[in-house]
Amino acid sequence: MKIIVLNEKEMKNIMNMKDAIRAVKEASSNYSKGKTDIPLRANLNVKEYNGNSLYMYGYVPDSKALGVKLVSVYPDNPKKGVSACPATMILENAETGEVNAIMDGTYLTRLRTGALSGAATDLLAKKDSKVFTLIGTGGQAECQLEAILAVRDIEEVRVYSRNIENVKKFIERVSKGKHQRFVACNSSDEAVDGADIITAVTVSNDPVFDGKKVKKGCHINGVGSYTPEMSEIDEHIVCNSNVIIVDTMDGTINETGDFLKPMKKGLFKKEMIIGELGDLVDGKCSGRKSDNDITFFETTGSAVFDLVTGQKIYELANSKSMGQIIEI
Ligand SMILES: NC(=O)c1ccc[n+]([C@@H]2O[C@H](COP(=O)([O-])OP(=O)(O)OC[C@H]3O[C@@H](n4cnc5c(N)ncnc54)[C@H](O)[C@@H]3O)[C@@H](O)[C@H]2O)c1
Q1: Closest residue (by CA) to atom 28 of ligand 1?
Q2: Is the beta carbon of 194 within 6 A of some atom in ligand 1?
Q3: What is the CATH number of domain 123-301?
Q4: Which of 46, 68, 138, 322 is deepest in the core (most CB within 10 A)?
């Protein structure tokens, strides 16, 4: 059996953000049409080492994508000099069940999560959007930035996080070779004032910006919240946006505090969500109707996006003879 092994650097050379956005649109469309088999994530507790091993697996027939992403959550790892959340994607040949590829699951997650915001922004944000605000400068942030730059002609990028020194370091790292003006913001008010697009990608349990300060016509991506306790998007946005789209209905409605908290107060109903990203891709629901509409996209992620994006990376690597090959 011949297996292609791909690290982050090789994956970056193989697939750019525009290709990744196309891949997640294909994944979303298949998911929303019910043409995927994505079981609930399996979870093993490894209590001896204070760890959890998660298995995100599934099958997307139209994309010939079959496999599993192994994600481990080991909070004590940093003390050992190891990532607290190592991840690896394993893809199989759908025709034979043999393993085709092993790739860096951490980078794959960042790429496909950025691509999800990119796809939603492409379909929902005003075409002439110029000012982008990024809130959060952690592991996911750079791909979130790349995704917005891939779909709109952005002139100014504003970055805000809890720690201004981290913001400055982030800007120094990601702005190299880019023509946009980067601004390190001292407050979220400063960051969102006049912004055309806002992406929140934080681990916060409370809103990270004041929704009432958001200008009409803005598009917002909520990426970080994936538990009932976490919520980074102001209720004002969640309850008053003209268009709300989610990556997967089941995931978002059951997992994210962005929806669950206002729902508990009776301020938000599932019916206020217009549809899934796949419905929007396929024209089954409408997006923005006017330049004054506020549009909101919420993502909690799903194995379907890893599978299809990973499969496309594998196919490109195979056709270009890239990556390391191992035989077992
Ligand atoms: N939707 C998806 O598919 C998907 C995929 C991967 C990760 N995520 C989630 O995205 C979130 C971010 O991931 P990461 O790897 O970048 O995390 P990280 O821990 O590396 O970074 C978190 C960032 O949030 C910032 N932050 C926290 N509280 C804040 C606040 N109140 N105001 C402003 N900034 C604040 C921190 O300063 C930091 O920059 C996590 O919750 C993660 O689980 C979602």
Answers
A1: 204
A2: no
A3: 3.40.50.720
A4: 68
